[in-house]
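[Meeting: bench + compute handoff]

Bench side (C.D.) handed over the final construct sequence. Compute side (W.E.) agreed to return the predicted structure before the next meeting so the bench team could plan truncations. Sequence as handed over:
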Amino acid sequence: MDLYQIIKRPLITEKGTRQKEQVNQLIFEVDRRANKILVRNAIENIFKVKVLSVRLMNVKGKERRVGRNVGRKADWKKAIVRLAPGESIEFFEGV
């Protein structure tokens, strides 16, 4: 699997911003088939940072209605990546 297919996008939320400031953790949406080793290698090689730990979780898609039609959003996987002290990713600076 290509490194750029493993990491889909960063999740920038209020809780994620707090985690970044307090414990140097970043949150990403990753491919459903990715494991901790693939996520660690992708983050280290793409952003040139040192990763201390990776936590993964499967997020269930929510049920949505439009009138009487009921649908579902897709399930996805979230990764919480803890960086080494002094490390940072540039696009998160100033957020």
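W.E. noted at the follow-up: The first strand starts at residue 7 and ends at 10. C.D. will use this when planning the next construct.
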